[in-house]
Write a structure and sequence with these properties.
The chain is of the alpha+beta class and 97 residues long. The chain folds into 2 domains: 11-51; 57-87. It is 31% helix and 27% strand. It has helices spanning 57-78, 80-87, and strands spanning 11-14, 19-29, 32-37, 43-45, 50-51. Strands 4-3-2-1-5 form a 5-stranded antiparallel beta sheet, with no helix packed on it.
């Protein structure tokens, strides 16, 4: 990526490590352009950075997984094994200390 293409606040990714973040500042050191990322506060060579795209896939997957977990927990709590185990406790709280 060229330094002229980069703007402050732009989301970029360093493909070698997968580090992504927003550009906080652009600095030139000894004729080489560097950009500081907000995620690490480190300088990365501008020519090594690529534009980052934000996908919404992770939030939907996490939401679906949470729904599956909740359904499984409700099924277990309504089942006879859980109800039988509740009958065998004396409702005391022993902290062991």
């Amino acid at each position: 990526m060229l330094a002229e293409e980069m703007t402050l606040g732009m989301r970029v990714r360093y493909p070698r490590t997968g580090t992504a973040g927003k550009v906080l500042r652009i600095e030139e050191i000894r004729g080489v352009s560097f950009a500081e990322l907000d995620s690490t506060n480190l300088l990365y060579r501008v020519d090594q950075l690529i534009p980052a795209t934000v996908t919404d896939r992770t939030t939907t997957t996490a939401r679906e997984d949470a729904k599956e977990i909740i359904a499984r927990e409700r099924e277990y709590a309504a089942g006879s094994e859980f109800q039988d185990s509740l009958k065998n406790i004396d409702q005391s709280c022993e902290g062991g200390g």
